[in-house]
Amino acid sequence: MSRIGRMPVVVPDGVQVDIEGAHVRVKGPKGELERDFRPEMSITLKDGAITVERPSDAPQMRALHGLTRALLNNMVLGVSQGFEKTLQIQGVGYRPEMDGKNMVLSLGFSHLVHVDAPPGIVFDVDTRARLIKVQGIDKELVGRVAADIRKLRPPEPYKGKGIRYLGEYVRRKAGKAGKVT
Q1: C-beta separation of 42 from 52 below 8 A
Q2: Could you give all domains of the chain from N- to C-terminal order, each with its CATH number?
Q3: I want to staple 155 with a disulfide (CB 3.0 to 4.6 A). Which of 47, 102, 147, 162 is the partner?
Q4: Reported confidence tier of residue 1, pLDDT bands at 50, 70, 90
């Protein structure tokens, strides 16, 4: 039995869950999410908790059991608390700025890089600490947008310049050794 799939998803106060077969809609104080799941998984709401059951012990069904429960949990957490990823910019002259809802990054290129906020994503920029916060209710979308921003200028191993996740460790290389006579 899947340890993750077995655990019920507790629905907090203020969150409403509608289950119509394999289609689940979760509504909360931060917004609304909906998703279609595989019809083989049976999703039920009982006593303020969502449970997921699988039809058989086939390897694919066992994998889907835990996945379905994790996705449901992320939906409930997203509409009640929201998700956030923090990126840090390091490098001389590298800086983030806000332009309305969108973001403009100066990353050492000959041009500025404009990053548009997709629907459901909010950028919060701290220009003094050079931090970018990507916030939203959909965990998958928050992670994808943060990864796309990091991909614009990944941290390089010699000077450590670039965009990294807050707390990410970048292995540094020594570089060239000087001439010894």
Answers
A1: yes
A2: 3-80 (3.90.930.12), 83-165 (3.90.930.12)
A3: 162
A4: very low
Per residue in 56-93, pLDDT tens?
999 999 999 999 999 999 999 999 999 999 999 999 99
CA 141-145-147 angle, to 5 degrees, is 115
Q: So what's the pLDDT on residue 119? A: 93
State CA 101 to chain mean position distance. Answer: 19
pLDDT tens digits, residue range 150-161? 999 999 999 989
Return the H-helix or E-strand segment holding 17: strand 16-20
Can you tell me the distance from the alpha carbon of 178 to that of 130, in angstroms, rounded to the nearest whole number? 33
Q: What percent of the chain has pLDDT over 70?
A: 97
**Residue 85 · residue 78 · CB < 8 Å:** no
pTM of the model: 0.88
Residues ≥6 apart with Cβ < 8 Å to 73: 9
Question: Nearest to residue 137, comparing CAs of 148, 126, 122, 116?
Answer: 122
Strands (E), 21-178: 23-27, 32-36, 42-46, 49-53, 83-90, 95-99, 102-106, 113-115, 121-126, 131-136, 162-165
